[in-house]
Amino acid sequence: MSRSKIWTDIDLDAEGKICGYFRLPLAAHDKSGDDAGYSYEPIPVVTVRNGEGPRVLLMAGNHGNEYEGQILLMKLIRRLEPKDIRGQIIFLPAANAPAVRADARISPLDDGNLNRHFPGDPNGSPTAMIAHLIECEILPRVEYAFDFHSGSSSMEYTPCGAIARSDDPDRFNHSLSYLKAFGMPTSMIIENSTGGDGAMIGACRRAGVFHMSTELGGGSTVSLDNLTLAERGLERLLRHVGVLSGPNTAEPEPETRIVHRVPSRDYVYSDSTQTGLFEPLVKLGEAVADGQIVGRIHYTNAPWKAQEPVYSRSAGIVMCRRVPARTRLGDCVFALARDWQEPPSATERPAEDNYGGNHV
């Protein structure tokens, strides 16, 4: 496979702590602009290395307007020194740097969703070039990749870690231990995830790299509670894989509720033919029943009109909710999950027709 055309001045294999940039060339894509011919897009990268040991990629900004993960990694970058680890941690806190700069889910350069562009293309669009860099230049250097997401601007999630279901019991149990170490209130198993070949999880599968992702809130804001949970969880996780050294100050692993998503057809949608304001009647983490009224839609253009109830079409646990109150026909207002149990056989696993949902 061709080498990446993204270049850098830093040595990813060097000892110590090194901060710099990957440089994404823009001129070849006619994306440098009228006032910046032959320019590049800087993608921040940090490597912290101390001898032999586990090798870990920590990544955020896969979608540019998901903030908790970006802050989480920036704080750790400033705090961590080589003496604190054994092995190596590579940080990509703004992986889709054009989207981060634009404060958008997707890249303004090519409307590219990085988490759908793997394995990428060294001669492709800017987003495809970034995906190729990650899959072909970075993942071969690591054993673990942890990718931090939130709910973007349209959804808010209950904080959770997520892994894919694997047919290899040993590999799956190994990954399951990450969820328990990360220790969010809820953890999610993604069933039948072969549809995610274009996502980071597909790249890790091809590279033989262990993977975990997250949903840490969202709604165009930063939750102090969720960020605190994630900071504590990340310290436990890095100790669990053996890359952190020194005194263990992490809190013990809390209990986590393990769930799997229901198929997308069983999410809760607005079926109203008119746009209105959505009033939620349930909260994140609550259980709902099939047929339960979980919200109402109010019509500002006809305030005397009766509110319209929104019904759950399935039993489950509310994992995320729509944030903008303005809602129209087809908008997902709640995504649901159910408690996960080990399926007896591959033929009896639940169908998963919406790999990755909003992010993972």
How much of the sequence lies in strands comes to 25-35%
The string of secondary-structure elements, in order, is EEEEHEHHEEEHEHEHEEEEEEEEE
Q: What is the CATH architecture assignment of the largest domain?
A: 3-Layer(aba) Sandwich
How many strands, which pairing sense, and closed or not: the largest β-sheet? 15 strands, mixed
Give the rounded overall mean pLDDT.
Answer: 90
- CATH T-level topology of the largest domain: Aminopeptidase
Overall domain count: 2
The structure class reads alpha+beta
CATH class of the largest domain: Alpha Beta
- Count the DSSP helices: 6
Number of beta-strand segments: 19
Q: What distance lies between the first and last C-alpha atoms, to the nearest angstrom?
A: 26 Å
- As residue ranges, the low-confidence spans are 344-360
Radius of gyration using CA atoms only: 21 Å
3D shape: globular
Helical percentage: 10-25%
CATH superfamily of the largest domain: Zn peptidases
Task: Reconstruct the topology from this structure.
Elements: E1 7-8, E2 16-25, E3 40-50, E4 55-60, H1 67-79, E5 87-92, H2 97-102, H3 126-138, E6 144-148, E7 155-157, E8 160-164, H4 169-182, E9 186-190, H5 200-207, E10 210-215, H6 224-240, E11 257-261, E12 268-269, E13 276-280, E14 287-288, E15 293-298, E16 308-311, E17 316-322, E18 326-327, E19 332-339
Parallel strand pairs: 4-5, 4-6, 6-10, 8-9, 9-11
Antiparallel strand pairs: 1-2, 2-3, 3-5, 7-17, 8-10, 11-19, 12-19, 13-15, 13-18, 14-17, 15-16, 17-19
Helix pairs in contact: 1-6, 4-6
